[in-house]
């Protein structure tokens, strides 16, 4: 029987893995974590209704503590300067295959159609938490930029550095225009703190936590992932052989 990552998380199998860096250091752990999807990923994507909504929860079901995943503070001089000014000078660039490149402030983002959703975050580090996220839908931002029909992927570039390079991730257009895919600036009715990705992070609710890029600085619409990092679509995909499609 092939175990999916969801079933592995549910049975506590990931309790042996303390975090992404430990997974990176253990080839056997990577094999266990991703073997199911390596074998049936194409079938999974073909049979799964990718337009379906992720489960949403009631306010009384929210977790009392919502842990941080990945980087807890970019710590770079540029990011520290933005944080010191409460991100008043921060701007999100929307470029690539778009008719109208955008440079958006937080006030600009709050003017877009908003969505609030209480969902569960499933992390490859072996934990889950339920929280309320709020922000504009990614689809509305892409429409405002006039994303072109030859764009196939959306690439996110972040302020945190891994081995001296900005963290990056990508999703396809199906996930980009999914109604629950948002650019979140609030968690549990408060502005994001640094540990949770301030000032803005991606929420793509039907994928595992490493796809939810934090500390967003730039969004690019591209026709191919070939020129992004090593061509697999994300930092962990390129460096640790994580699956690009982390659907759950």
UniProtKB/TrEMBL annotation:
It holds the Pfam family Oxidored_molyb. Gene3D superfamilies: Oxidoreductase, molybdopterin-binding domain. Residues 87-221 form the Oxidoreductase molybdopterin-binding domain. It comes from the Bacteria. PANTHER family: BLL0505 PROTEIN, PROTEIN-METHIONINE-SULFOXIDE REDUCTASE. This is Molybdopterin-binding protein. It comes from Sphingomonas aracearum.
């Amino acid at each position: 029987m092939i175990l999916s990552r969801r079933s592995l998380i549910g049975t506590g199998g990931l309790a042996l893995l303390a975090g992404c860096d430990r997974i990176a250091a253990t080839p056997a752990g990577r094999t266990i974590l991703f073997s199911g999807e390596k074998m049936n990923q194409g079938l999974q994507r073909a049979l799964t209704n990718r337009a379906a909504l992720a489960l949403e929860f009631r306010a009384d079901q929210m977790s009392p503590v919502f842990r941080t995943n990945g980087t807890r503070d970019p710590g770079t001089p540029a990011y520290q300067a933005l944080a010191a000014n409460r991100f008043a000078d921060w701007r999100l660039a929307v470029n690539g295959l778009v008719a109208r490149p955008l440079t958006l402030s937080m006030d600009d983002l709050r003017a877009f159609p908003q969505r609030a959703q209480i969902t569960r975050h499933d992390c490859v580090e072996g934990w889950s938490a339920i929280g309320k996220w709020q922000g504009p839908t990614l689809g509305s931002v892409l429409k405002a930029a006039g994303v072109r029909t030859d764009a196939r992927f959306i690439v996110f570039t972040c302020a945190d550095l891994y081995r001296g390079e900005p963290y990056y991730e990508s999703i396809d257009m199906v996930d980009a225009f999914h109604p629950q895919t948002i650019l979140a600036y609030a968690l549990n009715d408060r502005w994001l703190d640094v540990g949770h990705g301030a000032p803005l992070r991606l929420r793509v609710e039907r994928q595992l936590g490493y796809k939810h890029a934090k500390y967003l600085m730039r969004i690019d619409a591209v026709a191919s992932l070939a020129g992004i990092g090593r061509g697999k679509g994300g930092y962990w995909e390129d460096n640790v052989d994580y699956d690009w499609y982390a659907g759950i």
